[in-house]
What we know:
alpha+beta; 5-stranded mixed sheet; 3-stranded antiparallel sheet; 15 helices; globular
Amino acid sequence: MTAEVVQGLSAAELPDPMVMPSRRQCPLDPPHEYAVLREERPWSRLRLPGGRVGWLVTRHEDARAVLTDPAFSPPLIQVTPNVDLPLPAEELQVPPGMFSAMDPPEQSRYRRLVSRHFTRKRSRELSPRIQQIVDEQLDGMAASGSPADLVRWFAQAIPTRVITEMLGIPEEDQEEYHRWVIAALTLATPEEELREAGSVIVGKLGALVAAKRADPQDDIISGLLLDDERPLTDEEVVSISVLLLIAGLETTANMLGLGAFALLEHPEQTAKLRADESLMDNAIEELLRYLTIVQFGLTRTAREETRIGDRVIPAGETIVVSLAAANRDPEVYPDAERLDLLRAETAHMAFGHGVHQCLGAQLARVEMKIAFTTLLRRFPDLRLAVPAAEVPTGEDKVFYGVHELMVAWGE
């Protein structure tokens, strides 16, 4: 694909520095500027909040290099480069246990403690319970009648129930935690509301951690408290729980909602999945590559001067790695702009890359496989109940998805 083919736009017509692209012409595709930049200007000067300037990286090779290089550190909060942080910078101190904002070796210790709860083996052991949750949610949707909102019954409910149960959060509190995660990841959430929600959830988690320290159960929080490698404080366990809630709930929810939208928009390919469920693993990897819900990329800061290829990055420079652009790189994925559920397995970066790669990737895959397989089996004539152009999408959130997906079945 040449730059001229993409809406007649060339990189020379884009401002330098530019604002992070965000406008989508198709709900299932990233902004078309990425294709132009990836070909003509894979390292682009990017305007950041507060008048700062950084770099936007759009090519797969460069993205992997940045995310692998130990000279680059993650920030405390991953948000869009188009919006100021909701809280003052001086308040953004890394709390004990918030290992997503740490570098090795400190990050490695926390990650090792948590990752044992998210191994491939452990995720597969959870399959019967995940299947039960999926069945219950789809039973409820069927009983509610056609049409119904697949986001409400399916995409949001399944990962909410899975991750809160894994953490040991009481069922009656699950909806409150879910509302807080939505508020934290919605770009327009007012500062006052964000502070209040955060305070309430941290307080509730603090009380829950204290209760489990006194009376441990079979859940992740109790397991972290009982770990004897190096005892964790209550504050550390609360921070880890916040991180797992955000990472395990809204990411999978958006992939389920947006993935279902993509399947319904590609009925010929979806028919192949209905006919042969053994293709589902391959299809999930392609959905992850094609949709890439981390719509504003991953931010990194150079701790020291470093070199990526023939480019020298000074210490203190901010790099935004576009996973969505990297996962559509035609140098790595032939015919990259096309969803091909039978595409040969490729090493996409939907879960990031390097030491900070999403540790819940295996759980997300298990949830998606069970959820999509059961959905297609239970509702063989499932279809959109509204035109695709009327499906409300989530440009206003850190993770891209659909706010609502009205579907119909039967006559």
